[in-house]
Amino acid sequence: xxxxxxKWAILVxxxxxxxxxxxxxxxxxxxxxMKVMLGISQVQLNYLAVASDLGKAFGWSSGLALMxxxxxxxxxxxxxxxxxxxxxxxxxxxxIFSPPYFVVFFLCLLAxxxxxxxxxxxxxxxxxxxxxxxxxxxxxxxxxxGVSAALYTLAANSIDPxxxxxxxxxNALIPLLTSLAALIPILRQPELDPLPSEAIQxxxxxxxxxxxxxxxxxxxxxxxxxxxxxxxxxxxLFGGAIFLLILPLCIPGVVYAREWFKEIHTHFQIDGSGFxxxxxxxLEVHREMSIRGGDYASDTMTLLGNWKEKGDESTYSFTExxxxxxxxxxxxxxxxxxxxxxxxxxxxxxxxxxxxxxxYYIAYFCGGTIGLVYSNNLGQxxxxxxxxxxxxxxxxxxxxxxxxxxxLSATPDYIRAKFYFARTGWLAIALTPTPIAFFLxxxxxxxxxxxxxxxxxxxxxxxxxxAAVSITSELFGPSSVGVNHNILITNIPIGSLVYGLLAxxxxxxxxxxxxxxxxxxxxxxxxxxxxxxxxxxxxxxCLSVFGLFSCVLLFLRTxxxxxxxxxxxxxxxxx
Length: 575
Hints:
mainly alpha, 4 strands, single chain, Growth Hormone, Chain: A, two-stranded antiparallel ribbon, 2 domains
């Protein structure tokens, strides 16, 4: 039981790491000051944001380091990369250090790389200490990465609300301090024995309560963290946020109340994971049944399921009519080279030749990545609309709703017993708010429209970021998910460059050509007015519609594989 207690302490340490290492989300809080201090154009500022996102392309280096170094050493290497990258940028904004532009670019790249290394450490801790519930551990901890910007906003307001450069100092120091706090649990990792089924169910219930606590934390940050810029109030609120992050430490004590958990568990049934649908055992059964019975479904039939409870038995009914209707107009496009079963391993050489992968890539590229670029530009967007004072509020809105979106990605499997729907379909639903938000921003420059659009984009992006690993695992194989997911997220630095460059070119062009709303500050053009981002929002909206279309097509091509998997899973349970 001591080992069981220590594993929950490790989970809390992982939550802390994720909550305080999403430092790329507060870029917009200090980007305007960075632009003025360096005397650079909006295009050059965009390249700095690209450099931070480009760090994701070097995420593989953390895995290589883990082959030769202890986990805690890798964690501190990540902490010191961030300390160096953000710390020197803070000196730049304070006027103490005046490097050339390419050095600042490298510092942004180094800071972005540190985030990937932290993520790798967290993934390894979850997988190693929660082998039976690793998907629940991953979905919970990854979700907390979305509240980083809100936490840093509170921390900055509690020290000096008027200083934008303070965010860089906090980005440098807090992850290092968090690593020190997480060191003892990591060094005392227990040797865990395989858990009986009752213990696995008990742990699932604990995760259920932890998710409830996570929702309360998100609501607290959403409604209270942006309500005041007063230093005294911000300190109290920041203390409350820290308390909510420490509160899960009570879980080790709850673990010992086994009888209490058994009593409560009779009222809850937590079935499956909110992060990875294809579990290894279920996948093996699915493969065996697919091999034995190739006639379960033809390529022209989509299997739609619906639970029907009858006493103690459960049946699963299927229809062909909906499948036939959906394939009337574009049947060849939907059927050609589509996936027949979930979990089939795809090496990289095979992956890049699959139509489904590129539909998935486009959906991510035109969905979650656009949302990330939007968050990078929040500082200039608010400034151009005359709402610079609302920048921290917008950052908190994006951060909090991104957090809720990440938590919502776990919902489909919690309700799977009563309502089953392919995860690619949920992804299409989650992508829908993005074009709505951009067209809303195109049509109105009001404060309400800006806040509403930011919330919708954060919610959509958060869901996509959290669901992506599970979808990659389901469509292209769990054993290949590490390599395949790294291939997928190459769209982030590419999108950051393309979308950010589009926004920057439009911004600088309007600033030069417009005779109104332009302010010259230390030879730096500042564009004022709705026109600064009007066409950017319009084209981002059009691109996100294209991403939504790609995602819907992916759903139509893959839903028969999802339904087939669900039928095989249910059949195996009934046998």
